[in-house]
Amino acid sequence: MKTAKLLPILLILLPVILGSVTRTVKQDGTGDYLLIQAALDACLSGDTVLVYPGRYYENLVIGTSNITLRSLEATTGNPVYIDSTVVDGNNEYRCMRIAPNVQGVSVRGFALTNGFSTGGGGGIAVSVNSSCMLVNLKIFNNACLLGGGINIGAATVQLSGVEIYSNYSISHGGGVYAAAGGGYVNTITFDPVNRCSIYNNRAGVGQDIYIQNAVSDLNVYLDTFSVAEPSSYYAIYRPDGLDEYQIHFDILNAHHQEIDSDLYVSPEGDDTNDGRSAGSPLRSIHEAIYRIASNPAHNRSVVLAAGSYSRAANGQSFPIALKTHTVVQGSGMDNTLVIGDPHPLIPTGAGYSDVVFKTHSEPEVMISDLAITTINSMNSCAIKGMLKGSLNLSSVRIHDINPDHNSAIWVWLTNESDSNWDNVLVENIVTPDQGLVFVGGSMSGTISNSVFRNGLSTFNSASVGNTALVSITGDRYLRFENCVFSDLTMTDDDSNAIAISGVQFPQQSNDFSFVNCLFSNISSNDKLIYVGSTNNPNVSFHNCTFAGNSGNSHTLAVNGNVSIANSIFDNDTPYQIKISPTAQYGEYSTLNIDHSLIRDGYSGIQQAAGNIVNYSTSNLDTAPLFTGGANIHDPLYYTLSAASPCIDSGTPDISGLDLPPYDLAGNWRVWNGRIDMGCYEYGSEPWVSNVDPELPTPPEGIRVSVYPNPLQNTSRTDGVLIEFTLPKKTADTPVIGIYSIRGQKVKTIRLSESYNCHVSKNGLSNVVKQTGEFYSTIWNGKDDDNRPLASGTYLVKVEAGQMASTAKVTIIR
Fold first, then answer.
1. Using omega within 30 degrees of 0 as the cis cutoff, is the peptide bond preceding 710 cis?
2. Does residue 557 register a pLDDT over 90?
3. Confidence at residue 727, expressed as pLDDT on a 0 to 100 scale
4. How many C-beta neighbours within 10 Å does residue 73 have?
5. CB 479 within 8 A of CB 443
6. Is the pLDDT confidence value at 714 over 60?
7. Residue 188: alpha-carbon gap to chain centroid
8. What is the pLDDT of residue 17?
């Protein structure tokens, strides 16, 4: 009986009685094992695996507590053994993983490289509720989704003399990623004497470090970091909950000095160039952003030459991490195309989101004058991120991508900085979940001259609704000016195609305004558009057109203090407008509607008890008589015909409507002495700003006009016919200059001095004819380099001697 009772005790004490075992690994066969993993599998608690030099193509898993894995560096103190004892993941899986609940592991004196994981930790993954000491390691050229070098998942890790560099994370933390959860926390310690180095890593966000769910401050003692003063571009530290814990750096050396100037990138560039001029461009967009300095006093630009940028064509890496106060500036949305394509090692359908541009915690990011699309992706996103500030977009086209649980633009804004979008085109999006645009948190600012079209949501559920194809949460004020929302289709029977909602219970009422906007060909099995919030917002629709939309409920649902003026509602829905209270918050809505055309008149407004509707006798209930045509998807289909009752039927006093001076087509907003209903002004001419680059026009100066205006789909037409008249003979040859709306000259047309040429029919732009004092020429919509200009408004300036005149033309691609 005594022997039986002592047996379990003897089994427990046996390793101590026999002593720990050192198991040697040698590739020449003279050790105990040929493979490191075989030695690890044989270990008991307290054992040591001693690895001799060699390159071991293995993907190690440490599953036993209290063991030591080391190279000869640990026994000799000679660092040469770090470089000569290599664990090579062979891009098949991560180099090393410490399994869950494994305690007291020590790893020392190795180089870990070529690890890859679709999860966390390309070099090393430290699993939940485990603990380890990592000493004198080099971790480089590894890749994964989270934590290219090291991924720490709710574990205790001591780092001493570890060098983490040139790793890549598709999402977060190029060098180190740490996250906690499930009741466990991370405890990370950096040795202040035998210091680590973390530098030159790349990621979607947090180039070197990304730590979330932090429960205390973290002191990071480093010999070398990428920069001397890390910003959120390099290191992100997110506390758990509302606590404001901090990461404190003590850095002795910086790996590189950021460049405080514009940098240039070309599809034919080379990352060994300095990038400081167009003649010495870099190749990688990500690399250029990494090198450039953020200068709050003077925004710097990463200037992209015309051409296509992709992983396959010129080795781009995605996501491209955006940096604050840095403009990613292309050469025009028709000339510069960024094509996001998946990482070649990510299997199709793995659930990974292919993001083209990504950002996190940056105060301000900016993209302009380029197009974004993706290929070979089942779940893609053009721009994604959480910003502590603003997202500013100018002349950006996003098209033909397939978001799954994302939108083409998916951002969360957490600050009251204003975001401004101008000339943004988002189109041709099919998604089972979200859509074209999702902005969460709170957005304030202006969206102008933008188009959101050709979107399809295939989501369908009998029990829940889906995110709208265009979903924006606004705060303070949000203004939409000269925008088009068209051809948006919701399959679900309980989802809006467009939802502009407000932050719940802000300190002030939200203010949402729409001017000169077109909502057309939007369809759903139920409702279509919602604008409002739960704090009695101020909402206005001035000179907007809602037409050609169809659904089983209403076109527009709105609540708050609502003003509708000079607008047209002509839709195939039971109700044109639904005015809703938020009675559960003790709030009711007031709708003031005047000088507008409403199909079915007053009965076209669905009301709820407690609301107030002030319906003016100035409103019309008749057909708007649009110009129409063969293509109902053409925005100009909804211009007014000569017989339209909406002409000169707007409010006599427009001083309080806050309208721009031009309509949706870029023509004068008020023409013939009275404003029209809807987003287009009948018979108007192109609007010319008083800040446009033009010389004073004499009383009898040059008279210039352009047709067609706007110019659509220039690849299928001869171009723009430019006609002008000189009031008198002049020895000076007329010259036509084409300028961007900002005054940048993009094209010079020098006319023949003989004035005897005929008008071209092949799209050329340097021929002219004369009939008396009348001249005309055709411009093909291209710049001086024969590249098609992007969609937008341009100035046509004719000069002859001291005479000059300017007209406007809008290009719609």
1. yes
2. yes
3. 67
4. 23
5. no
6. no
7. 33
8. 42
CB 581 within 8 A of CB 611: yes
What are the beta bridge partners of residue 71?
51
CA separation for the pair 742, 795 (Å, rounded) = 9
End-to-end CA distance of the chain: 92
The SS3 of residue 9 is: helix
Strand partners, 25: 33, 51
pLDDT in tens, 406-463: 899 999 998 778 999 999 999 999 988 889 999 998 899 999 999 999 999 998 887 7
Is the Cβ–Cβ distance between 106 and 66 less than 8 Å? no
CB 531 within 8 A of CB 558: yes
Which pLDDT value is given to residue 728?
Answer: 63
Q: Which is the CATH superfamily of the domain at 703-812?
A: Macroglobulin (MG2) domain (2.60.40.1930)
Measure the CA–CA gap between 176 and 169, rounded to whole angstroms: 9
Residue 768 has pLDDT above 60, yes or no: no
* Residue 288 parent element (H or E): helix 285-291
The number of angstroms, rounded, from the C-alpha of 453 to the middle of its chain's C-alpha atoms is 17
The count of other CB atoms within 10 Å of the CB of residue 692 is: 15
Strands laid side by side in the 703-707 sheet: 703-707, 720-725, 774-779, 769-771
Strand duo 545-550 + 575-579: pairing: unpaired
In the numeric block, the tokens 């002219």 are attached to 768
Amino acid in the structure at residue 620: L
Q: How far apart are CA 94 and CA 88, in angstroms?
A: 9
Token pair in block for residue 293: 């300095």
Report pLDDT for 508: 65
Residue 585 main-chain phi, psi, to 5 deg? -105, 10
Which ranges of 60-128 does DSSP label H, i.e. alpha helix?
72-76, 80-84
Helical (H) or strand (E) element with 356: strand 354-360
Domain residue ranges of the chain, discontinuous segments joined by + = 23-254, 258-414, 416-684, 703-812
Question: Are 467 and 435 a contacting pair, CB within 8 Å?
Answer: yes
